[in-house]
Input
Amino acid sequence: MLLVCPAGNLPGLTAAVDAGADAVYLGFRDQTNARAFPGLNFSDADLRDGIAYAHARGRKVYVALNTYPGPARLPQWQAAVDRAAESGADAIIAADAGVLAYATRAHPQLDRHLSVQGSATTQAALRWYHEHFGIRRAVLPRVLSVQQVERVCERSPVPLEVFAFGSLCIMVEGRCQLSSYVTGQSPNRHGVCSPASFVRWQDEADGSRSVRLNSVLLDVYGPGEAAGYPTVCKGRFAVGGEVFHALEEPTSLNTLPLLPRLHAAGVTALKIEGRQRSRAYVAAVTAVWREAIDRLLRDPAGWQARAEWSAALSAHAEGRQTTLGPYHRSWH
Output
């Protein structure tokens, strides 16, 4: 079971590798990846340095080209595939069929992983991508119950990767219609659900703080109350005479309690979300999952989640809360 960790920049890559990641995933400084905003991502020189650092320690580097180019911009994504291959990356992570087709034709030796944004949740979908583009791995969307993950693993033609820790998405991965409606910008190519230029914080007379995305009031925080990341889906809204988190609470996915079950199901890789997060986040979260996986592999029968692991992960979670999300859903 491999541990795949985020690298928003070169220091993040070295932190992930040093903390025990088997592979890191990253993106270029453009809209070919779903975290395209200032201060993140890799130049060609940084990518070469990062790959050299990872390969010298026996680790792998995956380049995320996981956005949808649109009808007039496919050449930019094709050039990004070329750059990834020429840099010595171990794989690309892509969702768009045109990008996958180009990579298959132009760089057949470069492994192709199906992105979570491909939204493949069935054996039939996975088989289609495998037959047409020779994908070597697929990342499952964060909408399946653990029973559904187990069933897909039983018959999948390719190894599967699942998200283990980090932010949740309640929309089709990376294509949030709520954010697009409020800001006019698709989070698929603009790198973030709530672009900073649209976020407005305001200190109120009673000591509270309000936050708006464009003109939409997302939340009001009382004095001393911890503020969450300002996304539409995690705002508090007035519904039926009550004000509450009508769609989703500020919380992070944490599948640590399910680790033995995911391993038994045959999940090949666990993915940590967070290319936009700090080097400290990457190092701390990677270290916890590295220890947990290693202990499981050494002693599957005696493994149990440790309280200090959960505490460390909660300290880096949104709202300092964690959830199993759809994994624990009883209905299918």
In short: The mean pLDDT is 92. Residues 116 and 209 are 35 Å apart (CA to CA).
